[in-house]
User: Fold these one by one.
Assistant:
Number 1:
Amino acid sequence: AEAGLVTAGAAASMLLQAAACMTGTDPAKIAQIPDTTGVKNELVIHRSHRMGYDQAYIVAGATLVEVGEGRSVKPGELEAAINDKTAGVIHICRGWRFGNLELPEVVEIAHSHGVPVIVDASGMTPPLENLTKFVSQGADMVGFSGGKGLEGPQSTGILCGRSDLIEAAR
Ligand SMILES: *Cc1c(COP(=O)(O)O)cnc(C)c1O
């Protein structure tokens, strides 16, 4: 990845991803959140990717916009959810086996609208090749747990990706 940051866990990475997408490196916006008045604050997420940890995005001030019916999402549904309030598109990597969009397809749609894709890959190690796979598939920021398959201390994590967004997260 272009840049990286040690975080206090994957959940902390999720919060920082949301914040970075909303504020960039604008000091006034950084000081303002979680009040997002006048700030792009929508994060699009597959309905089937919702889970307890996604509160971390909301804590940063983001509003989650769900797409899809049940366990299936069509490209047009993702496309239709993106508007000028959209700060990013969330992709939770968890070895899903049902009708979700794959990460490369999500990246293609989001990037065609100039919107970053943020990935939660908390438990996606092993295999270690996943540490680089999602960035190579075009994800703008990816978060990993230090305390799961990486076997580091519980309260650690890695956030990596585009240098401007990592700078914003920092
Ligand atoms: C475990 C988990 C997290 C939180 O990870 P921590 O490193 O404990 O903060 C976030 N997202 C998913 C999908 C997880 O499985």
Number 2:
Amino acid sequence: MISVNKSPISKIDSVNFDGLSFGSVFTDHMFVCDFSGGSWTDPKIIPYQPITLEPSARVFHYGQAIFEGMKAFKDDQNQLFLFRPKDNFKRFNISAKRLAMPEVPEDIFMKGLNRLVRLEENWVKCGVGRSLYLRPFMIATDAAISAAPSKNYKFMIIASPAGVYYSGEVRVLIAENYSRAADGGIGFTKAAGNYAAQFYPTSLAQQKNYQQVIWTDSNSHEFVEEAGTMNVFFRIGDTLLTAPTSDHILDGITRKSVLKLAEDLGIPTEVRRISVAEIKNAARNGELKEIFGTGTAAVINPICGFEHAQEVFELKMFNNSYASILKDRLTAIQHNRADDPYQWRHMVP
Ligand SMILES: *Cc1c(COP(=O)(O)O)cnc(C)c1O
């Protein structure tokens, strides 16, 4: 049973829903459940507020911290939906296991999400592009700094209203030395530390006026892996290409949704290793038509140029790109404006 302690006041009237910057405003409540004595106890929804931790809490020292990113949507009849929430739940526990953290039971994860979204339904606005971004996460809370996994954890869900994701023109630098993830590592998890490791190389790219880095494999730097914190697709001729998931490429839910939609639209797809040389050759001979990233926050983010080894390439933007067709298809399903033969929409009870 989830106990609910409602906030006596709401911040909602002070929020400008047309001028939201991503992930900076949070709703009135949060879900909290603690792991101690070997079990998850006392799941509850309480007013959004600071949490108190000991300075020795293991999360600060050894980085046992994982998260998920997902969205709730409203259709034009004010029905509430989550998009493929079971996939986020499964991936959360895949991350937990790899970081030696306890798995969260399905009913705690799903009921926590459903109850929180239902309680915050006024924060979910109608209209394509609008959503409530949900951030489940878990941290190690033991007050002890011996290098060992924690025995106590906190699982929480916070929620942030999101508007149309506006990134402007995105150009990327293809990494020649830095990597996001290595063989045998934790690249397939949504571990907080994966993001910490990306900020510095990304800031170097930003100094050169590139918004993101396209990560390459850590062994040879010859094969492309992901774009920033998104999976990456390339259109060469009429074929849509993306790299296979592995222990160093995250199994994105947007990625696999886009692949499925592309197949069903009759777009030829190939899931295989893609070399930087292949991309550069295709760019030189005019066969490289599109590059785009996929992820929950931006859905599909077109990339209009890249640099690798001091060579700069620009792509022409055009109408009816795969990126725009697939984004329209996906957002129509998310907002219940199109049939959902895949059963990706989950009605919030
Ligand atoms: C979260 C994430 C993605 C995108 O996954 P979605 O399920 O589509 O949101 C891609 N790459 C990395 C590294 C990520 O952390």
Number 3:
Amino acid sequence: MNLRVIILLLCLVVFVAGKVHRFRLQRRSHRHHKVPHAHMHLQFRNALRRKYGYTPLRTTINQASDSKGVVLSETLINSYDTNFFGEVSTGEQPFTMQFDTGSSDFWVPSSHCQVCIKKCGNKFFKESKSKTFHTDKVPFSITYGSGSVKGIVASDDVGFGDLKIQNQGIGLVNISDSCSDFDGICGLAFQPLSMTGSTPLFQQMIDQKLVEQPIFSFHLKSGSSDGGSMILGGSNSSLYYGPLTYTNVTEAKYWTFKMDFVEVHGKGSRRCEGGCKAIMDTGTSLIVGPVLDVLSLNNAIGAQHNATYDLYTVDCSSIPTLPIIVFGIAGKEFYVKPQTYVIVFQDFCYSGFMDMRGLTYWIIGDVFLRENYVEFDWARKRMGIAPAV
Ligand SMILES: *[C@@H]1O[C@H](CO)[C@@H](O)[C@H](O)[C@H]1NC(C)=O
Ligand SMILES: *[C@@H]1O[C@H](CO)[C@@H](O)[C@H](O)[C@H]1NC(C)=O
Ligand SMILES: *[C@@H]1O[C@H](CO)[C@@H](O)[C@H](O)[C@H]1NC(C)=O
Ligand SMILES: *[C@@H]1O[C@H](CO)[C@@H](O)[C@H](O)[C@H]1NC(C)=O
């Protein structure tokens, strides 16, 4: 055999040996939640304010059935509309984790977290059952779109299917103020955002040579319990159309990029004209933006502000006739259809474009990612985007 053939064979072996790992995501819709959906929306709104460093608003809902109104405590926050998650093991113990490009820490509940265990029914970490566990008991706290958590920094092995990351810095949560569909969070943003001071999980995967390329990708799906997939170590071109369009990360903390514009197709109503800051966040369900921009978009799709719940409702029967929303990124256009951006909850339909007082940038969440495949290129600090299959 000549050298070229040998090299070719070696390449094939690496490829087949599969340092590109496809990781199935599960999806659970909000339909099984008992809390009225609009209440969750208000909780979600406040939790998101905290995740991005804004003060929560005190909100009172005046319901027809209860003239005294309901004051929302911050204690029960559901994972809201749709969330994408999968099984990950910590110290050989399985946990259901949310994959969040909007944070940088990996945490699971500890045996001390009463809320996690008793109220939320989450799984918890059993220190005595792991031989690889270590902690210096340094405290940490994090605030998320789904609530806030406090605990101690530790380390242990983390397993993604057949992938095993050794000595991953993890947060062991003692105190949580909220419940969600998942046990813990697996942060996929950059080190400067880490509150446990740990090397982020994906950096560890690269350092420990577990992935083919320093890239991970998300292919989110709608409509079924199959949430799509997260691909570790590369991309899968059969999951998107055409080439990826790359946009550079402008600040490697969150996955921050410059968005060129947002437009309601055919309505000539363009916002973020001339470009604005945006963050790609798989851990946020909706698309969130500055108040006036979101007002303009929602007006253009005929959504009505519902003051009771502080959200924009849409006539459910109008969905097929609503316009497409266009996102300009890196000189290309990406689309989101009304079937994706209108959130349907029984007979209550509302816009997936949410405003946030004080917000000066956009948070591009799952409403966008369910129609557009995104490759997160960790080393080159860029994102590749293409319409998803
Ligand atoms: C969490 O629990 C551990 C074990 O009991 C304890 O050492 C630590 O101080 C607790 N930390 C916080 C922030 O409550
Ligand atoms: C890419 O995705 C397609 C379609 O789901 C799948 O059949 C194929 O096995 C995937 N390829 C790899 C290398 O994971
Ligand atoms: C993106 O970053 C790369 C590397 O820093 C640079 O070469 C390229 O010009 C940048 N692209 C744009 C459109 O700014
Ligand atoms: C908001 O929506 C709820 C649920 O459909 C409805 O009962 C309420 O009257 C609406 N409030 C406003 C101000 O439109």
Number 4:
Amino acid sequence: MSPHTAQIEKRSTRDWQAADARHFLHPFTDYRQLAGRGARIIERADNIYLWDSEGHKILDAMSGLWCVNVGYGQQALIDAATRQLRELPFYNAFFQTSTPPAIELAETLAELAPEGFEHVFFTGSGSEGNDTIVRMVRRFWDLQGQPQRDIIIGRINGYHGSTMAGASLGGMAAMHAQGGLPIPGIAHIGQPHWFGSDRSLDREAFGEQAAAWLEAKILALGPDRVAAFIGEPVQGAGGVIVPPASYWPAIQRIADKYGILLVSDEVICGFGRTGQWFGCQTLGFRPDLITFAKGVSSGYIPLGGVLVGARVARALIDQGGEFEHGFTYSGHPTACAVALANLRLIRELDLVRKVREDIGPYLARGLAAIGAHPLVGEVQHCGMMAALQLVRDKHTLATFDPALAVGMVCRAHCFREGLIMRAVGDRMIVAPPLVMTREQVDEMLALVRRCLDLSWNELQERQLL
Ligand SMILES: *Cc1c(COP(=O)(O)O)cnc(C)c1O
């Protein structure tokens, strides 16, 4: 790169791939496999589309990584970053100092949050938000004179990030298998995944049963040992698992009964994804703490944090003394300025209501039609996130041998057809930008259908059906 220009000069795809393989250790990646194949180099984006280094246009049905809620290329966010970088790119919030963007964002979040949330702790990411949750929850119980209440219950196949605490709260077996996780004081219960159960109960009865696992775990551990329960309103990385409607209200009753704190990890569900500002409003529960990240800044710049409800905030503020926790980038002014512009844009475009009343239901209708496809055994959706469960037999709902990696077969077709749809096992998932038009939903679903057809043909040719 020339020292006189900030521009990154264009190289050939091969060149990028070779340098990538030589130096860049990607997250959640098999390095040898990637080096053999070469990374796909994404060069630019606009609205809901990406372009790779070969000039292919790709419809991004995953909003980057569940975060680009307002789509790419929004000038208001670009301008907010530019202005703030010029004015005050960075200052910390440690030593009794503050900055206007951080103050204004905290104020705005308190306004948008469910009732009872007046305080915000900023972090640089969702994982750091969940590390903050662990420290805050345990500090809360210390201050209540119950320091033995230190166990936080999460769920198998939940995702709460990749730091030591985030990965521990999450229930991903492959993550726990590396690095001695979970850390002490974390327990897990099963997920409210009806399709993955033995399906002997109807969905709502199953939802009650899955919630009852929480009570059983509390009783097994001892009610005086349990500090909190954490869950995503709708599990994202676990495969867009929408719980039965009975689940969260039953969880709420159990949390209330034992007085434990309820934590909603809204890193994906927050900021309109489910058709409300926060997923707990769609799913019907009242958390004490909310983790956020991703959609707060539409991913244009890293930002996360914790919304702190009155119960915990009062303890920290009135009795806590110094809270010995924080990050260099807690309240990063440029990140906060971009988030403010993002939230303003979501309001101006009325995106939350549109997801709830227009584009979400429109997506749901289109998906219902795709549900007739012979490969699809279950369709689940909530606002602008959805899952298609691939099955071997539509009538018995028999699934494929996991070793066949049928989800990856479908994903390979998506890759070639210019669609980013993710595979979680044999669940194909989408979480497109909230700004999608009806025409773009049609375009996306036509691609989805085509990729399902191509997968069907391939599986037939390989005699797997
Ligand atoms: C992505 C995600 C996280 C982790 O956020 P990072 O910014 O990647 O650290 C935590 N919780 C949920 C629900 C997520 O989807």
